## 1
Amino acid sequence: MTASAFSSPAPARAAGDSIVIEARNLTLALGRPPARTEILRGIDLIVHAGDSVALLGPSGSGKSSLMAVLSGMERPTGGSVHVAGLDFDRLNEDQLAVARRGRIGIILQAFHLLPTMTALENVAVPLELAGRPDAFATAEAELEAVGLGHRLTHYPAQLSGGEQQRVAIARALAPRPPLLFADEPTGNLDGTTGAAIMDLLFRRHADTGATLFVITHDPNLADRCDRVISLADGRIVRDGRAA
Ligand SMILES: Nc1ncnc2c1ncn2[C@@H]1O[C@H](COP(=O)(O)OP(=O)(O)O)[C@@H](O)[C@H]1O
Ligand SMILES: [Mg+2]
C-alpha cells in the first residue's frame, strides 16, 4: 500500500471475442402496487471476455440492481441473462449459488463478512468449501496483497470499515474468478488505499484476463476502464469506449 501505486501502467486492452455477459431486454420491478418501482427498464448489454467496464450513474439509477441481476443475486422481472456460460433462467437458487462459485467474484457495498470468523477464515473457508487444499496459504497471500497481512486473526468487529472492505475484496479475488463484479469497491477507503486497491483489481484483470465490471462514481477509475456505461432511471443512456 504505497502512493507509488498511483503510477502503475494502464491495463492492457483485452480484445476477447467470447461473450461473458449477455442481457436482453432486462427489466426489474420491485415492491407491490401502488409502491411498485420499475428499477430496470429494458437493458440490452453484451460484454466480451477480458473487458473492463465501468458503470456510472446517479444514485438510485439502478446500478446496484443491474449488478445484482447480472451476477445472479436477483432474478429479473423480464428478459434473459446469460453470464459466464450460464443460463440463469434454467437454474434454481441453489444451482445458481453453486454455479457462481469460482466463476463469478462479487464485491458488494456491504461486506457480508462472517462475524464469528477471523479475517483469514473469512477468505479461506470459501476456498476450502471449493475444495482447495491450499486454502489457508492462498487466503494469507490474498490478505497480504490488500495490505492486511498484520490483521489475519482479527474478527470483523475489530477491523475498521476500510479494513473490512479489503477482507471482502481479498475473499472475492482469492478464487481468481474469470468475472469480477465490484460495487463502488473503494467507497469506504481513503484515497491512497482506494488507489492501491484499484491497482490490485486492474493488475488481476491484466494478469488473469478476468472481466472486470465495476460500479463507480470516480471519473479517474472510469477512465481506466475499456468501456464506460452510464445508467439513468433504469436505462443505459451512454455506452462507449473510454477515450
Ligand atoms: N427492494 C426494493 N424495493 C423497491 N425499490 C427498490 C428496492 N431496492 C432498490 N429499490 C429502488 O431501486 C432504485 C435503484 O436502486 P439501486 O440499484 O440501489 O441504485 P444505485 O445503485 O444506482 O444507487 C432506487 O430508486 C431504489 O430506491
Ligand atoms: Mg448502488
## 2
Amino acid sequence: MFKNILLTGNRLPRIRNALQLVIPLFIKYRLRILVGFMALLTVDLLQLMIPRVIKSAIDSLQFATASPASLLQHGMLVVGFALAIACCRFGWRYLILGFSRMLERDLRNRMLAKLVRLDRPFFNRRSTGEIMALSSNDLAAVQMACGIGLVSCVDAIMMTTAALFFMAYIHPQLTMIALAPMPILALLTGLLTKLLHRRFSRVQEQFSRMTEFARSTLSAIRLIKAYTQEGPQTGYFAKMGREYVKNNLRLAVVQGALFPFSTLIANASLLLVIYFGGRLTIAGTISIGDFVAFMTYLFLMTWPMMAIGWVTTLFQRGLTSLDRINQVLMEEPVVQEPLAPLPMPLTNRRISVRNLIFSHVAQQHEPILDGINLEIPPGFLGIVGKTGSGKTTLCQLLARIYPVAGNQLFWEDIDVNRLSLAEVRARIAYVPQDTLLFSDTIGANIGFGNPDADQAEIEQAASLAAIHDEIIGFEKGYQARVGERGLLLSGGQRQRITLARALLMDRPVIIIDDGLSAVDTDTEHRIISNFKEWLPGRTCIMASHRVAPIMAADQIVVMEGGRITDRGSHHDLLDSNRFYKTIYNHQMSTGGAGN
Ligand SMILES: Nc1ncnc2c1ncn2[C@@H]1O[C@H](COP(=O)(O)OP(=O)(O)O)[C@@H](O)[C@H]1O
Ligand SMILES: [Mg+2]
C-alpha cells in the first residue's frame, strides 16, 4: 500500500516535490525560526564556555593561584551560564517547536481543503483509514522532522564542530585518537537506522490497516450485531493487534540496540582519552585543566554522535510521510471545470443523453452503461430496474459525480463538459442511494444545503417529504440530535430527512436515487402526491428498483444490464413489457415492499 520513496526509483524528483511543500512555510515563519536558532546557538556557545571555566579553575588549583574568592567567582560564572542556558533553551523550544506546530496546522488545513475538493474516484481508491493515518501519523512525522529533528540536527552539527575545534585547540593528536572510533559509530548507526526505517514503515502500514478496520467495524456496527459477528470481528481485530505489537517489538529491538551500541563506542573514545590524555598530562604536555576540559568536550560530543542516527531516522520518516501527503495534495478531481465554460442555458432545462457509454475501468469489456439515449424535459422521469442494472451509475453521471465523455450528455444541446461544473451542480439537488446524516440536529441536517433557510422553510420541506409530523412528535422536535448519542431514526425516516434536505435546496433538477426504498407504501403515496404539486417547471429524476414510487411518472424507462430496454408511461409498460409487469405484480402482491 505505502511505497517507501527512499527505497524506490526516481526518488529525487519526488523528494524535491515533497520538499517544495514545506519550503514556503519555512519562509513564511522565517523570523520565528531565525530567532529560535539564535537562541539555540547561544545555548551551544554557553555550553562550550563551561569547560573553559572549569579548566581555568582547575589550573588555578594546580598552579596554586586559586583563592576562595576566585573559586567562588568561577562557580558563580558557571551558575550564571546555566541560568542563561535555561532561558535560551526555553526560547528555542517555544519558537521552533511552536513553528513545527504551525507548519503542521497549515499542512492539515491544506489537506482538508484538498480532500473536500476531491471527488468520488479518489475516495473509491483510498480508504478512510488510510486518509486518517495521513492526517495523524504522517503529519506527526513531518512535524517531528521539522521541529525537534531540525533542531537536533543543527545542534549536533554546531556542537560537534565547536567541540572539535576546542579539542583540537587543546591537543590535535589527542583529538585524532579520540575520534578514531567515530567512523565505526557513524557506520553502525547508519546501518541500524536503515533497518529502523524499514521496520517503522511496516508498523505504520499495520496501524493504517487497523484504523481502517476499526472505522469500518464501528460504522457497520448494526450489521455486525444483526449477523452476530461480534466474536469473529473481535478475533480478527485482536489478530491485527498482535501483528501490530510484533511489528513494534521488531522495531523496538533495533531502537534498543541503537543506544547501547552508540554508548559503547562513545565509551571506547573516553577510554582512549583517559589512557593517552592521562599520559600527556603526566608528561606535563597538557595541564590537568586541559585534560578535564578535553573530557568534557568529548562528553559534549557524545550526544550529537548518538543523535546522528536518530535525526536521520526522523528526517527519513518525515520525508516519506511528506511524500505521502504530497501525493494526496497533488491529486486533482477527475471531473474538471472547463477552462472556458460556455454560459449556462437559462430557461428551458432539457437534458439529453445521447449514446452514453460508461465504465469505471478504462477498456472494460462490458461497459456499465451501454448506449443510453434519453431526453429529459421538465417533469417526472422514472428509472426502474433490478439491482445492478446501472440506475445509480446513470444518476451519478447525470449529477456530474463521475466524468462523462464528450458528446454524450447535453444541457440544452450544449455538451456538459463545456459548461461550468459548479454551475451545473448548483442546479441539481442529488439524493444519493445511501442516506447520510450528520450527528447534528434534525433541523441542521435538513438545512445543510441551504444555510440561509429559516425554520418555516425547513418545516415546509419536511412537510413535502412527509416527515414533519414525525419530527414534531420527537421530544425536542427539530432540535433533536441524530446519530451518535442522539435519536435513533428508522431507515424510512432517514431517507425522508435527506429528501427534505434536497427539496429545501429548491433547485430546478432533483435526482433521487432509490430514495424511497425504506418508506412504507402510504407515506410513499403522500410524498408522490406532494411532489405533483411541487413539480411544475422542475425536473425530477427518480431511480427505483420498485415500481410504486415511479408509477406516476410522465416517462418511465426500464433498465436491464446497463441498457434501456423499454420506455413509456406506467400503463404502456404494464401492457407491453413483461419484465415491468412481473415486478409490478410481484410488488403489489407483497404489499409494495418488493425487495
Ligand atoms: N465504483 C464502481 N466500480 C466498479 N464497478 C461499479 C462501481 N459502482 C458500481 N459498479 C458496477 O456497476 C453496475 C451497476 O451498478 P449500479 O449503477 O449501482 O446499479 P443499480 O443502482 O441499478 O443497482 C454493477 O454491476 C456494479 O457492480
Ligand atoms: Mg442503485
